[in-house]
Structure formats: C-alpha cells, structure tokens
Amino acid sequence: MIVILIMTTLIASSQTKPDNPFGLVYQDAITENVPGEVNIHPVSYKLNGIEIAANVYTPANYDPSKIYPAVAVAHPNGGVKEQVAGLYAQRLAESGYITIAADASYQGASGGKPRNVDKPANRIEDIRGMADFITQYEGVNADRLGLLGICGGGGYSLAAAQTDKRFKVVATLSMFNTGVVRKNGFRNSQVSTIQERLKKASEARAQQAAGGEILYAANTVPTDEEADKMPFDLYREGHYYYHRTHAHPNSTFRYTMSSLLDLMRFDAATNMDLINQPLLMMAGSKADTYYMTDRAFRNATGTEEKELFLIDGATHIQTYHIPQYVDQAMNKLNEFFGKYL
C-alpha cells in the first residue's frame, strides 16, 4: 500500500508539468529564470544542415567571464530533451556544470525529414554536435567536457567517446544497446525473425526511394491494459513514463522502418577498447536491461579508470524519475565527474 501511495503521488505531481513554460515534464523543473539560480536557455544550431533544438543549463550565479566544466547529456530512444535528459542536465547544473541536452536530429523539436529517422550514425553525430556547440559557449572550459548518455543515448555515447577525445570522461545511465535489441529483440526474444524483419526494412527503403509512403515501426501506443500484460519491466514501466506520467508531444517510440537497415548492424559494445577516458556505467540493480551494461563494461579494456555502479533497488525506468534513485545516480555522477573534470 505504501508503494502504491508513493507512486500515485509521483504520477500526480508529474502530470502537472506539461504547462511548464519551457515544456519540461520532469519533477522540480525550472519554471522561470531567476537571477542567481540555475537558468535554462533554449538554443538552436545547425548540424550538417539540420536545425538542432537544445536546452543549455547554467549554474547558479553563472558569470560568463568565469570558467566552468561542461557536460553533454544524450537522451533515450524515443525521448526528448524535456524529459529525463533535462532532469539530469538540470541536476548537474545545480552541481556547477554548464550542461546541454539536445533533441536528436529528425526527432523532437529538431529538424530533419522524414521524421523519426533513427540511425546510429546520426545519433553519434548529434552527440558530437552537442560538443561542438557547448565548447563554444561562454564560460565553458573545453578541456573539461564530460558526457552522460541515458538509455539508448548511453549506447551512442559509448560509440561517440570511442573516437571523440574532446570528451574527457564518459558516463552512462541505464545503457540500452539499441542495435542489438533491434536485431535480436529484447533479451533475444526475436532472434527467429531477424531475416523477416530485414526484408521488411529493405522493402520499406525501396518504397521510400520510389516516393511512396514512409513506413514506421513501433507506430502504435498500447492501452494501459495491454501495457500491464507486457513481460518486461522496461516496456511496461516505459509505457507509463512516456505515455502517462512524463508524456511530451514531441516524444514518440516510432522510427522509420528503413532505419533498421542501419540499426540492426550496430552494437554499442564493440570497439569498447577504444575508450581510454574514465568510464562510469550506472544501472538499476533490478533493471532487466542490466545485461547490456555488463557486457559493454567488461569490453572496456582500454581504460584503467572505470567503475560499474548499481543503483540499489531500481529498475531501468525508475532511474529516470524516482527521487531516491535519481539521488543515488547524481551522488555518483558528482563524485566521478568531480574527480575527473
């Protein structure tokens, strides 16, 4: 009963957030820029000809004539900058960092057509683009740049940090290896249909090239009853987070079917030996996605400064918004970034 009451309270508090003037839907989000406090600055910039929408958070008493460390925050698959990425960007700004959370190209409020293309190369380039922009921001020390990737953004952050050494330290939260899941299914539940799904993706690409209708995967929203019957915490709790308690109009799980041609050959856990920066990987101790973090962490043989941190009692989605779990993650991030940035 106590757990139910707590969850009901959290849901009720989250549902009051869509009226936030900055579109933020997470708990305790900034509602106005108050002098002397953490402020949010909506910005836009061009990346390979695409207009990128982002939010920059500056620390309390920010003075552009001073120098600050910075952190880029990459959002989950289907997520947008106003959800969990914004929460952690704001919390890091409260700790003294200048932070940026940007919508991926083709997604959210960023440009790019067709909508909801979801290719690994684009997502990795989006992360590099955040580095391009934030290292030029007034007050940022480009030599003290960190990276935090959440869920799918975590997998893409690992890939970005493998080659982009502007990132002096990299951290992931509830890392999701998108390509492997798109190929094999979650926890290898769709291995038997790999070739069938590749054929559909190929046909979708052909139809798109011929000027036909753009076909999408994951283009329906389940009912609560359907979600309750889902066998995995990730999808069941993800439904309530993305469609109910922290819903945002720009957030959607759908992606172009043709994206699978690129997604299904991507594996975030490969080339992990290229990461020589300090590495922190965090996951809920009860997360059904933990196996992805574990494999990538074990493959990270190129750095001696690496740490695996389990958030006690948390599932994957709970690390996005439950205060006690967010606090655990933030305490570890402040310790790790504080040491290396």
Give a verbal description of the structure.
The structure is a single chain. This protein is 36% helix and 18% strand. It has helices at 2-14, 84-94, 120-134, 152-163, 178-184, 194-209, 224-228, 233-245, 260-263, 290-299, 323-340, and strands spanning 39-47, 50-58, 68-74, 98-102, 140-150, 169-173, 216-217, 255-256, 279-284, 306-311. It has a single domain (2-177, 220-253, 267-340), classed as Alpha/Beta hydrolase fold, catalytic domain (Rossmann fold), CATH 3.40.50. It has 11 helices and 10 strands. The radius of gyration is 19 Å and the shape is globular. An 8-stranded mixed β-sheet has the order 1-2-4-3-5-6-9-10, sandwiched between helices. Strands 7-8 form a two-stranded antiparallel sheet. α3 (120-134) crosses α4. The chain is an alpha/beta fold and 341 residues long. Mean pLDDT is 95; it is low at 1-17.
Keywords:
341 residues; alpha/beta; Rossmann fold; 8-stranded mixed sheet; 11 helices; 36% helix; globular; disordered N terminus
Tell me the structural class.
Answer: alpha/beta
Could you describe the largest sheet, including whether it forms a barrel? Answer: 8 strands, mixed
Number of helices, where a helix is a run of at least 4 consecutive DSSP H or I residues = 11
Extended strand count: 10
How many domains? The number is 1
Quaternary state, please? Answer: single chain
- The second-level CATH architecture is 3-Layer(aba) Sandwich
CATH top level assignment: Alpha Beta
CATH structural fold name = Rossmann fold
% residues in beta strands: 15-25%
Mean pLDDT: 95
Helix content: 25-40%
Broad shape: globular
Give the C-alpha Rg.
19 Å
If strands are numbered along the chain, what order do they take across the biggest sheet? 1-2-4-3-5-6-9-10
Give the uncertain stretches in residue-range form.
1-17
SSE pattern? HEEEHEHEHEHHEHHEHEHEH
